[in-house]
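Q: Is it fine to ask for two folds in a single conversation?
A: Yes, each is treated on its own. Send the first.
Q: Here.
A: Result:
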Amino acid sequence: MARPVVIGIAGGTASGKTMVARRIYETLGSDRVAIIKQDSYYCDLAHLEPAQRARQNFDHPDAFDIPLLRHHLEELIAGRGIDEPTYDFTQHMRAPETRRQPPAAVIVIEGILILAEPTLRELMDIKVYVDTDSDVRLVRRIRRDVEERGRTVQSVLRQYEQSVRPMHLQFVEPSKRYADVIVPEGGHNAVAIDLLRTKIAAVLMEAWIEIEGPASAGPAPGS
């Protein structure tokens, strides 16, 4: 089996990273793609009181369990399955359930800060940054956190002003320089998605030829 192709998809909060990952998943098929979310790897804050948990900066690199995330990526690359953690955003703590993730030909890791982490970047074959206007991202963030995470509009705006925006400017936006592909407007950009699909197919083909040898591409001339 060839080494899996690892694709990192970064970008600001609510930029459309998940939709880009879903487009890849739909194109290549569920049996070939594993999607790993950085949000699943928030550090467990169960040891803190609920009020203390809510005051944490969830947009700083230190909010994530990067060693565990890297270990799980290495396991998938080696062809071994993992038990991906799940996170309870309403309680700000890791849930007891895990999600079994079998190995796959393509591993997609998506999250706001994955390109800001050198130890994660070095495992990636294709690095993508989803670039979406800040006002669009804020509206999406409010809608998501209110509808899916039980937040109030006031709490979402307060967090955005205190940590989301400052951390975006300090860590997320600068990580764009590491991207191989920049996708404006996320999964709604059909042209960029098509180009990304072509790139993924080319990398997969290179990996297959490398593992099988040049002869696998077809008979030699004159044979």
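Q: Second one now.
A: Result:
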Amino acid sequence: MKWGIDAVPAPAGKNMADSGVIALVPMKGHSERVPGKNLRDLNGKPLYHWIVESLKRCRYVKKIVINTDSEEIAGDISQNFNDITVIRRPGHICGDHISANEIIAYDLTQVGGEHFLQTHSTNPLLDHSTINGAVEAYFGGLEEYDSLFSVNCLRTRLYRADGGEINHDPEKLARTQDLQPVYEENSNIYLFSRSSFIPCGRRIGRRPQMFMMDRLEAVDIDEEQDFRLAEMLVRYKAGCGR
């Protein structure tokens, strides 16, 4: 079962969601591909402010926790957001090769609560209404699923590195709209419980639910060109009054 962005969760999910989630946002000071991106100006404010402001508008987010190794980021948080909990990242989970799951595992030793939302500072277009919908879908699906992650739906011809086809038959050349869809993890939304995370040590559990998003809203800044695309989209939305 897959939830679309416009899907309406079961009423039980909405009611359960009122218990709330804790938002976890890991944030490094160093970035290999886009230097200083978390504090870099995006249409008048630091990049990470965008996701924080979206989270603060979510009806189901009861607490925001930012894990950082940067004194500069911690200082900016204390200056601009007095209601955010900052976790100073210890040395053993610092560096470019530490996974998000390792950081989450540490965060769970520092904060209470059972249900968590993990997102990134690099998702500036992620809207609070989409997060609300994902939380409702997560709670609505807990009898069947143990976690939720957001995806982009792809209907395009995909290949492996050796040139082998993934989702199509070159002898038939079906129209792309008729291809079997493939889903791309887009790194915007992860929802899980303490109970689902601890046994397997990962944010995507053993029985995950996929939550489809609009691909433009799901822009994740990994490269310089992603930052430029996000700038254009933010300005477009501002011009449309949205």
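Q: Anything structural to flag on that second result?
A: Two points. The helical segments are 11-17, 47-57, 71-80, 100-110, 128-140, 194-200, 224-239. The two ends are 31 Å apart (CA to CA).
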